[in-house]
Amino acid sequence: MHELSIATAIVEQAEEIARADGADDVSSVTVRVGELAGVVPDALHFAFEVARDGTALAAARLVVEQVTARAWCGGCAEEFAVGMPPFFWCPRCDQPSQDLRSGRELEITDVEPAAARP
Predict the structure, then answer these.
(1) Per the annotation, where are the binding residues?
(2) CA 82, 84, 85, 91 torsion-angle sign
(3) Domain spanning 1-68+103-118 has what CATH number?
(4) CB atoms within 10 A of CB 67
């Protein structure tokens, strides 16, 4: 399950971001995961719960924003969803596309610090 190594990297990077911003704890981490990134969101959530234990993210929640895989057809200037499994043929002009525009993302987009304790 490679999601555990991904979750561990997310926790480590989120801790670094939080420390750089002067925060001790993190309440949530948002990640964008592309449809073709090879990551199973449910497995990532489970792995995140394991990886966050004993860290500044111990009580943090993981927010996963899924990104649809989309390709561009140069022949008819149309962007289209490629689906899963991916099908890189333009549904409009029936030509193949080699221009993947989205769907391989795996990035942290937000680290929300926990509310300061009085």
Answers:
(1) 2, 73, 76, 90, 93
(2) negative
(3) 3.30.2320.50
(4) 18
Binding residues for Zn(2+): 73, 76, 90, 93
Instruction: Evaluate if pTM is beyond 0.85.
Output: yes
Q: In the chain, which residues fall in CATH 3.30.2320.50?
A: 1-68+103-118
Q: Which residues are annotated as part of the binding site for Ni(2+)?
A: 2
Contacts of 24 by beta carbon, 8 Å cutoff, 6+ apart: 18, 56, 114
Residue 91 has pLDDT above 80, yes or no: yes
Q: Quick check: 62 pLDDT over 90?
A: yes
Segment 87-95 mean pLDDT: 94
